[in-house]
């Protein structure tokens, strides 16, 4: 049997190293078709994805089990990307493979009237994962420096200080025991067009289509600028961004699965020891 924690040999480099945002990287230069660090191809994906989903689910269960024994740590996956980048697919095909008992999913859309009456981090704090849980943010507090900036929903004097504020917020979370995995998902404009077109062709996909998606496409240069500022200013040692090319869904799913596995392995967990005498319990059970 292979050692379960060995990086699958199809990866030449660990995704957390390979995909980590580095100062100087330009969003405009990101190749959304690329498959960085992966030596295999699409035909390798189904088997590998199934294997790694199993490994991820096992580690997730271990995180949950440890919380029952008092461990307060948690993990937060932050998914940011333009429409059609595949955030929903990550939730369904990657996170969906583990026990829902230990997962807290939250998508962030246009804020409600109540949410708008509070500080922008109010709704985010309420959605943070409890001890032992994996929180999944489908969009996040970063919308408050992305769509908000691009559409001038608040003046620059309001969004500008948010970068530092978000860094301080994430530092606080990390200090309290939450490992944050931030993933910026990049799809090219051409591929996005194909995916939007498919949504318009298929009745089972209409629900994913929003006429406003076209307006966002038109603002792609402004979004590139906003994504650049987000990466430049909020990729920290304690909560770095990872850049995931998403034109090939099979690749983005494999890569993000590895990012999650690597983050959970970093917690150096083992199964919690019993807080009872196993042999004595076996004897008691045999007797009844
Ligand atoms: P979707 O993820 O396709 O359901 O779309 C949700 C929409 O809500 C996207 O267009 C987001 O940009 C938008 N959204 C998310 N957060 C905010 C926010 N804080 N302010 C304004 N719009 C937001
Ligand atoms: Mg959408």
Whole-number average pLDDT?
A: 96
CATH C-level label: Alpha Beta
Number of strands: 5
Ligand list? adenosine monophosphate, magnesium ion
CATH superfamily: P-loop containing nucleotide triphosphate hydrolases
In the CATH hierarchy, the third-tier topology is known as Rossmann fold
Topology:
Elements: H1 15-18, H2 45-68, E1 74-81, H3 87-93, E2 103-107, H4 113-116, H5 122-126, E3 134-138, H6 147-150, H7 156-159, H8 162-175, E4 178-186, H9 189-201, H10 212-218, H11 220-234, E5 241-245, H12 249-265, H13 278-286
Parallel strand pairs: 1-3, 1-4, 2-3, 4-5
Helix pairs in contact: 2-12
The structure holds adenosine monophosphate (AMP) and magnesium ion (MG).
């Amino acid at each position: 049997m292979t050692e379960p924690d060995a990086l699958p040999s199809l990866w030449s480099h660990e995704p957390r190293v390979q995909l980590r945002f580095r100062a100087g990287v330009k969003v405009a230069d990101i190749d959304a078709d690329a498959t960085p660090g992966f030596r295999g191809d699409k035909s390798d994906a189904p088997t590998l994805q199934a294997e790694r989903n199993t490994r991820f689910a096992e580690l997730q269960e271990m995180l949950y089990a440890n919380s029952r024994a008092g461990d307060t740590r948690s993990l937060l996956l932050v998914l940011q990307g333009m429409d059609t980048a595949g955030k929903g697919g990550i939730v369904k095909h990657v996170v969906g493979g583990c026990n829902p008992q230990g997962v807290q999913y939250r998508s962030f859309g246009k804020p409600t009237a109540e949410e708008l009456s509070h500080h922008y981090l109010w709704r985010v704090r309420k959605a943070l994962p409890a001890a032992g849980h994996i929180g999944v943010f489908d969009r996040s507090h970063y919308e408050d420096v992305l769509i908000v900036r691009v559409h001038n929903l608040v003046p620059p004097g309001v969004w500008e200080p948010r970068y530092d504020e978000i860094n301080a917020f994430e530092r606080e979370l990390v200090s309290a025991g939450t490992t944050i995995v931030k993933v910026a998902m990049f799809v090219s404009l051409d591929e996005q067009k194909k995916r939007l077109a498919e949504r318009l062709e298929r009745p089972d996909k209409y629900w994913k289509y929003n006429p406003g998606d076209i307006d966002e496409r038109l603002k792609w240069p402004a979004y590139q600028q906003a994504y650049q500022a987000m990466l430049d200013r909020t990729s920290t040692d304690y909560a770095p961004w990872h850049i995931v090319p998403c034109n090939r869904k099979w690749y983005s799913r494999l890569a993000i699965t590895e990012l999650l596995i690597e983050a959970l392995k970093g917690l150096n967990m083992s199964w919690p020891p019993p807080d009872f005498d196993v042999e004595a319990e076996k004897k008691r059970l045999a007797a009844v």
